[in-house]
Every structure is written in structure tokens, then in C-alpha cells.
Amino acid sequence: MDNKQNKETKETGAKKSIILGVGLVVLAMVLLAASGFIFFGKGEDIITGQAEVDEVRISGKVPGRISEFLVEEGQRVRRGDTLVRIYSPEVLAKLEQAEAAKAAAMAQNQKAIVGARKEQKEGAYELWQKAKAGLEVAEKSFARVERLHKEGVLPAQKYDEASAQLRAMQATERAARSQYDLAVNGAQREDKLAAAALVARASGAVSEVDAYLKEGALLSPIDGEVSEIYPHRGELVGTGAPIMTISDTSVVRVLFSVREDKLASIKKGSKLRGTIPALGGKAIEVVVTKMKDMGSYATWKATKPRGEHDLRTFEVTTRPTSPVEGLLAGMTIVLDKGQL
To answer: Which residues cross the membrane (predicted)?
Structure first.
């Protein structure tokens, strides 16, 4: 009787062990399938973007040495504020040369306008009067010779000599009169125009150098914030070399990189919602303003030989629908799930 009970007990324990083993195997298979679904299943993509602002680089037209910074990084500036001063001795030397050339041109122009000096005018007048007196004498002499020649008293040679003398004195008088008129009237119209053109050219050279000289003090073209300063005080900078960057914080945009199979639900003007981790998960709403292909470098390659194709990535530009306090360039924006 005892042997029979012992046998039944052993059989019952064996059945329980088998059932327990099968249950453990089934449980292990369920857990393995669940973990595979969790870790290897296709989950929903998280799409993130980055905030950016417009930036303006400040650079000068003339080379020189940084003599003074009037702002520092992080400082707010207004349009027209002086940011930096550049000392350029070469430009100052060019200005002296241009001003000297202008002064010389103005003197030539004044000389052309005024004409000859008083002494020159008086000298030309005296020569003219002398020629007039000689002409009067020649005219009287010719009249006497002509009368005597007609009367047959003087030969033809004397008449010819007196006639030639008269013509010579007439020419001398005209020449003296012309010299006097030139002294009184000054330079010709063309000479005056040429002198005036020289003054205009010299003035233009001075204006050009003045413009370069003004570039020694660089002004802010926008309202914004000084985000970065590159050289140090005392360093040399070349033409067009960037000196600092001004960020226009009033123009904020958020850029997302979205695979093309996620674009079906958005278009220009669509509104998207997200959060800003850097601001404690603060909510933000943005509106799509532009969508463009990012190029072949951002293409998603298919992993299977069949059934899949390459997908391109598009850059989606958005702007906040309302200002977000504390939003800075470089902060990440995470789109809420289910929008794309």
C-alpha cells in the first residue's frame, strides 16, 4: 500500500515539473517576443529642429589696425551705433595728397577766371598804345608820300616803301590790341572749362578718400546683438576681413530635416507644435515658410535590395507664430508626435 502511494506521489511531482517547465519556456518565449517588438520594432521617428537667427558680418573697406572696440560680445546695439574704430595712416596720407591736388587745381581755375595780373594788363595796354602811335605816324607819312607820288615828285620805290611800312604798323597795332584783349578777357572758354574740370576731378578724389576715411569707424547696419568678435584690439585687419557678427534676434527661424515620406501631411503655411527642452519643455508653435531639397548628401539609402527605394531629405524652414521668450540660436525644438 505504501509503495503504491509513493509511486502516485512521484508521478504527480513529475507531472508538475513538466507543467512548470513548459510554462517557463512559454513565458520566456513571450518575454523574448515582447522585447524584440520593443527594441527591434519600427517605432515612431522623433523629429527635431534647430533655432537660427539672421547674422550680419561687420567688415571694413580699408586695411588698418584695430584702435578701439566700442562694444563687447553679448551687448545689444542699435542701427547706426559705432562698433569699432580702425586706424589707417595710409588713408590719412592719401587724404593730404588729394587735398593738395585740389588746392593746386583751384589755383589754376582761379587764374583762368581772373585772367592776367594788373601789371600784365597795364604792360599790354602800353604796348598797344605804342603800336597805335606808330600806326598814326605811318598813316601820316604814307599820306604825304602818296600825294607827292601822285604829283610826280617821289619815285614809285618810295611809295612802295611807305605803303609797306603802313601795312606793317597796322599789323603791329592789331597784334598789340589782341594781346591787350587777351590780358583783359582772361583765358579762353575751353581753358576755363578745362580748369574747372580739374577742380571737379580733384574734389572727387578728396571725396573718395573721405569715404574711405569714414570706413575707419564701422557702424551697425541693424538692431541686434553682438554675438562674436574675431580680432583683438591692436591687431591688423585686411580689406573685407570680418571683425564681428551682429545677430538679428528679431528674425528667428527653426529648421527641420524631414524625410520625404513624412512630407505628405505638411505644406507651406502648415502649423506644427513642439517643445523646447532647453526652456524646460516650453511649448512652441511654428508655421512652415519654405521647403527645399537638401541634396544628395542627405539621401536615406534603402537597406533592402527589393521593396524599398532611396528617400531624399528636405529642409523645412519654419517661423514661430508668436515671440518665444528665452529662445536662442542653437536651441533644439522637438516636434510633437503624430503630426508628420
So the answer is: none
| Residue-range definition of the domain harbouring residue 131 | 98-209
* Cell (9 digits) for 91: 588713408
Longest dimension (CA), the chain: 205
Q: Residue 311 gets which letter from DSSP?
A: B
Q: Confirm if 259 and 286 have CB atoms less than 8 A apart.
A: no
The model carries a pTM of 0.53
Asked whether residue 30 is assigned to any structural domain, the reply reads no
Rounded Cα distance between 158 and 111, Å, is 48
Q: Do residues 124 and 183 touch, judged by C-beta distance below 8 A?
A: yes
pLDDT tens-digit readout, 214-259 = 888 899 999 999 999 999 998 989 888 899 999 998 888 999 988 8
Helix ranges (DSSP H) in the chain: 2-40, 89-114, 118-151, 156-185, 189-214
26 in a domain, yes or no? no
Only one residue has cell 502648415, namely: 270
Do residues 166 and 231 both lie within one domain?
no
Asked whether residue 288 falls in the same domain as residue 331, the answer is yes
Place of cell 517605432: 43
